[in-house]
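User: Here's a chain of 269 residues. Predict its fold as C-alpha cells.
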Amino acid sequence: MPCGPWEVMGALEAPPLLFLTGVVLAQTNDALLPRIDADRFRPTVDGRFTLWTYDAARGQSLRPSFRVLAHYAHEPLVYTYEGGDTAAVLQHVVETDLVAGFAFDRFRLGAIVPVYALATSEVASTQAGLGDIGIDGKVVLFDGENAPARLAVSGRLGLPTATLSNALGARKLTWEVTGIADRDFGNANVALNVGMRGGPNVQLENVRVDDYLVARVGAGYQIVPWLGVGGEVAADVPLHSDAADALAVEWLLNGRANVSRNLQLRVAF
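Assistant: Prediction complete.
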C-alpha cells in the first residue's frame, strides 16, 4: 500500500526520490538494508525552466555555471508488510546537491555531487555522508532559428562514491542515456526526455530493481523577465519487473526569480 512521500527543495545557481513499496520484511541491521539508491532525483546541470527535465538549449560557451540545491524528502522509501503495517526505511532525508557545468559550442560537461546532511530511518541508524557523484554530458544535435524543435542527447555516469550504508547509493556504476527534444512558444518552453537507466540488479521480494525506461516532460513560463514558473512529471518504468509497485511516477512544481544578472533563486515542491 503506497504511502505519500513528498519533497520540497530550493536551488541557488551562479533540486525526487524513488517511491518504492513492497511486501517485504524490513531489516534491523544496517548491513542488511537493500543495496539500492532510493534517490532517483538527479538535477539538470543547465535546465533553464526545470530542475529535473533536460532541455536542448546550448549553454553559454566557455563560461562555467554553478548551482546549489538544498532539499528535504519525507518517507521516500517505505516497506509495506502483508498485514498493511509500514516501516520507513528512509524517513527524513536532508540533502544538498552541488552542481557545476561547462559548455563549449554545442557540448556541455557537468558534475553533480550529492551530500546527505541527515538520513533517518525506523529500521536503521541515522546517517550522513556523500552520495553517488554523477558525471553528466550533453550534445546539442539540432537547433537554429528555423528548427521546429531543438534536439540533443545526454549521458550520465553514477560513480559508486556513497559513504552511507543505508538505501542511498547504488554501490556500483550506474548510467543513463536520454534523448531530448524541446521547443519555445513565446515566453513558454516545453521539453521531453526519453531514455534508459541502468543499474545493479537487486531483488526485493516481489520487486526487482534493475534497468528502467525513463520519461520526463517539463514546461516553463516566463511571467516577467525576472520571474517564472514551471512544472514537470517524471516516470521510471521497470523493464524487468511485473510488480506495479516498482513503477515510480512523480511531479514537481517550481518557481524562479532572478536575484541579479548572474544569480537565480528557485523553489520547488
